[in-house]
């Protein structure tokens, strides 16, 4: 009993002491003491260091005691500042197109359907209106908007919605499916615009902020970093696109297509365009330098012509060469370990006209050693239509040289 009494008295003393200590800590003297503890000093130092890392465009908090009437609308961090600055120039694009019905009307003439429906066979429409939603951003105060080609592809009506509630009818000024870039024109004046950055200076690890309308949720802001630069179209599963991509882990979802990818200062560094459906945190954007190059040609000419050789290519490496050489059906043996194998020559193409053949291996173009198919495509694109390229190829173990004049990429190739 005595032991229990002692334990009870000790617990009461500890509880009372804790209450007294808490009351003292809440007093002015207690607060002053707390501010001088090592933990409080370290916390203030870390806070100051974090503030020094903010981008220069973000205002620092005002000094204590200095009042500002606009304090309530100041962004709390650089991401909020970018969203506040750029958001008004990001638009939602609703596109309406007529598409053919995927159902074959002959299906309902099958005996099984006639058994159930008798003479009441349903009459299905042969075509219907399909609506899609994407994003875009205003690049000119008079109403020029940059977006993805697939957002407005085949559209009969384009409606543009601004953050301030205004709605405009849009006209597709030009579209280039090969690079997935399009320009839409709306009739307006003094519209909010974005500031363009320089995508050539973007590096992995840089901040990346995406603004768009995923799943119809207007002006959604997500943030992450640049995960990689220079991703080829083949690497992301879009081999028919002639453009490299920025990779980001900022969330990009259906409806984000055509919206801006921004740096920490709010400058556009890319046009959001694609995601890996089988992965999370893997999105892609077209570098703004390339996008604007295409946009300027669309604004000027309404279309873009791309250079064309007329070959389908395979990048070689030692493992692939070994497998191909073990194939008894191959008429020849590959004698090089690297380069680009011509897998097919398109009939009537510039490549066929000069005598290039399936099985030739491209090892040089204009004196530059060739490593992969993407490099060939980049050199052809850089040359432009109607230019002559010097190709050095290996055929049956022998080097040959061909002069090929580039043609125009056929529509839908």
Mean pLDDT: 81
Give the overall shape: globular
Query: How many runs of DSSP E, i.e. beta strands?
Result: 21
Are there runs of 5+ residues with pLDDT below 50, and where?
Answer: 56-72
> Based on helices, strands and strand pairing, what is the structural class?
alpha+beta
Helical proportion? 25-40%
What Rg is obtained from the alpha carbons, in whole angstroms?
A: 31 Å
Number of helices: 10
User: What can be said about the biggest beta sheet?
Assistant: 6 strands, antiparallel, barrel
Biggest sheet: strands side by side, in what order? 1-2-3-6-5-4
Tell me what portion of residues adopts beta-strand conformation.
Answer: 25-35%
Distance between the termini: 95 Å
Note the main attributes of this structure:
single chain; 413 residues; alpha+beta; 6-stranded antiparallel β-barrel; 6-stranded antiparallel barrel; 21 strands; globular
Describe this structure in words.
Helices cover about 25% and strands about 30% of the residues. The protein is globular and about 70 Å long. The protein is built from 10 helices and 21 strands. The chain has a 6-stranded antiparallel barrel with strand order 1-2-3-6-5-4. The protein has a 6-stranded antiparallel beta barrel with strand order 8-9-10-13-12-11. Strands 15, 16, 17, 18, 19 and 20 form a 6-stranded antiparallel beta sheet that branches. It has about 425 residues and is an alpha+beta fold.
